[in-house]
Design brief:
With 184 residues, the chain is an alpha/beta fold. Helix content is 32%, strand content 27%.
């Protein structure tokens, strides 16, 4: 009986994690001028589509602001370089992303003529989607997403929301140029 129990445990654990499969991806525009962006503002959205989203909106905005600050972007409501959009999707949905070179690798050569390779993705309910929009050039330049953020009643805590934002921004490893960096 003990051996049977030991054999069953991995399948039970696998089943627990099966529903929590998380997609972490990002796409970017080859027209992005990533080295030039220094300031941001968070876009003012109407209503998000996730039920009871308003109770999490402040926490998400705070987590986004902390992360942008960590990456040396300065908050600027009046004339930002980037607008940060975010949305939480309440249902599973299909999404077209792109298979692209790693963004840091692409930035070394900045080839705007690079080809986009479409990829169809299936994202689970509770997907957090964050997009960076170049205000001056009127162009979305980066979007990152992680699925299953709001999939469980136990996940909607300040800590888990901050973790979800971190998961998305861990894919955007670009720091704003700091004035001190120019001196050194």
């Amino acid at each position: 009986m003990k051996k049977l129990f030991i054999l069953i445990i991995p399948f039970i654990l696998w089943g627990c994690f099966l529903d929590r499969e998380v997609v972490r991806e990002y796409d970017y525009s080859y027209k992005g001028k990533f080295k030039r962006y220094k300031t941001y503002d968070i876009a003012k959205l109407d209503k998000n589509t996730h039920p009871n989203f308003s109770e999490y909106e402040g926490q998400l905005q705070e987590a986004i602001q902390k992360r942008m600050s960590f990456q040396r972007y300065k908050y600027n409501e009046k004339k930002p370089d980037l607008l940060v959009f975010y949305k939480v999707f309440p249902e599973n949905f299909g999404f077209q992303g792109f298979d692209q070179p790693d963004i840091e690798h692409w930035m070394k050569r900045e080839n705007e003529d690079e080809e986009y390779e479409p990829v169809d993705l299936s994202l689970k309910r509770g997907t957090l989607f964050i997009s960076l929009y170049d205000v001056k050039n009127d162009n979305s330049i980066w979007q990152g997403y992680t699925s299953g953020v709001f999939g469980s009643p136990n996940i909607n805590t300040e800590k888990s929301l901050a973790r979800a934002v971190r998961i998305v921004f861990d894919q955007y490893r670009i720091f704003a140029e700091n004035e001190l960096d120019k001196i050194n």
